[in-house]
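Write out this protein's structure.
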Amino acid sequence: MNISKETVIIRSLDNLDPEVARQEQIKRNQAVIELLRSWEEEGDEEEQTETWEYLRTALDEDRLSNRPLFP
């Protein structure tokens, strides 16, 4: 049986004192929050605008309706 690293961590936390498990969960949550914030800060506004324009055009291009999806 192949058990993932995350499964082992979760099972290990289940065997800990509830307060210790809670503190470990808080640490993991903080790490994820920091990662998401770093991704948000990396964003290039010009690149995001170009990507949106491309997506909007591509989505409206092959519509069955004559009405644009994003007017």
